[in-house]
Amino acid sequence: MVDALGEIHRVLAPGGILVDARPDSRVPAYAERRTPRGSQRFGVLKTNRLELANDRMSDRAIARVVRDGLFKWRRRGRFWHRMPFSSLAELRKYLSEHLRFVHRPEWVVDAPTRRRHANDQFVIRRAVRYELLEPLRRPRYITPTRPG
Amino acid sequence: MRAVATNLAGDVGRNVPAVSSALRPLPHVELREWGGPALVRGKRVLDLGCGDGRLALGVALLATRVDGIDPDPDAIAASKRNARKAGVRNVRFATGAAQHLPYPDASFDLVILSWTL
């Protein structure tokens, strides 16, 4: 990752910007059902350990190139992204294929209620983080890469 | 831009396929959060890990030129198909790895890593 960020630094013109955006695994995602009065949360989706480790590696890579003086932070932020599904079945299908999440939520209601609302709109709401970085021309110090 | 993005993303908001980049934020939504169209307007943009070209094509109408690169040849084939379908001409897609970018020094004003790193 640090190698890739070094290449990005090379191809960026002076005054250019690097945008890094990805799901924010430090914040849980939520499964919700849209109701006429708003949203009803019925589950929390946690990120699996492997993805968490990958995300932490990415965070560390960004922190390292900032520490080494390749880039400096211009702005950081987070926003909520809502993924809509036309039915509960669609949401379940997505979760069964999407390996990033663990602790799959179940909507705990009786069968008639579930049937009545099966075609409501369901949403997964997840946090997305982004960082805008500016390349610096003179790296202060390049941290040696760890072997392995 | 919105028309292109919506077209690529499918019927987002009502019914979306289970596995698709359509489940990511729309390009104009991401762009708005990052700082708005001014971030891209008139710039040379590199979309690293462009996948099927969702974001590259979404910002192409604002940018001078957009390059998309991805290690997956199937994704690049899909992005080229999507570019032809959308009629976008200032976008080039190539297969490649982020560790060895096939571009000269200082050739981009904006590099985007969207759901890539």
Number of discrete helical segments of chain B: 4
Distance between the termini of chain A: 14 Å
Strand order of the largest sheet of chain B: 3-2-1-4
**Class by alpha and beta content of chain B:** alpha/beta
Uncertain parts of chain A: none
Give, in order, the helices and strands of chain A: HEEEHEHEHE
Low-confidence stretches of chain B: 1-19
**Overall helicity of chain B:** 25-40%
Most extensive interface, chain pair and sizes = A-B, 39 and 38 residues
Mean pLDDT of chain A: 85
What order do the helices and strands come in, and which of them pair?
The complex is a heterodimer of chains A (148) and B (117).
Chain A: H1 2-11, E1 12-23, E2 29-35, E3 38-47, H2 49-67, E4 71-85, H3 88-97, E5 101-102, H4 111-116, E6 122-135
Antiparallel strand pairs in A: 1-6, 2-3, 2-6, 3-5, 4-6
Chain B: H1 2-9, H2 27-34, E1 44-48, H3 54-59, E2 65-70, H4 73-86, E3 91-95, E4 108-114
Parallel strand pairs in B: 1-2, 1-4, 2-3
